[in-house]
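A reminder from the course coordinator: this example appears on the midterm review sheet, so study it carefully.

Given structure:
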């Protein structure tokens, strides 16, 4: 009987000590190192990255449009040729989207 009480008190003390250690670690202030850049620089970098991805997709569509036009010229299919030119035009617009937006907004 006495041994059970001693074991319970030891477990209770260990639980309290563990809780205090965890609480102190959670409440501890951590250092955060921020970049010395302005927030707009970060946003501009993200914008450049996203427009780079869009340009890559546009180049893929542009290449697909060229292939589609070439296949339509070989098979003499006017509807496929029309789709190829539309795909080619869409690829050009997507590839140069950033420049087109810059011209429209004047920036």
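Designed residues:
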């Amino acid at each position: 009987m006495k041994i059970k009480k001693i074991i319970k008190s030891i477990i209770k003390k260990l639980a309290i000590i563990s809780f205090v250690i965890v609480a102190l670690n959670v409440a501890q202030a951590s250092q955060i190192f921020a970049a010395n850049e302005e927030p707009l620089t970060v946003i501009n970098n993200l914008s450049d990255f996203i427009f780079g991805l869009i340009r890559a997709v546009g180049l893929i569509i542009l290449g697909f449009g060229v292939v589609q036009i070439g296949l339509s010229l070989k098979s003499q299919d006017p509807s496929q040729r029309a789709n190829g030119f539309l795909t080619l035009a869409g690829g050009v617009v997507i590839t140069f989207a950033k420049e087109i937006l810059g011209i429209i907004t004047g920036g």
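The two ends are 84 Å apart (CA to CA). The longest helix spans residues 39-75.
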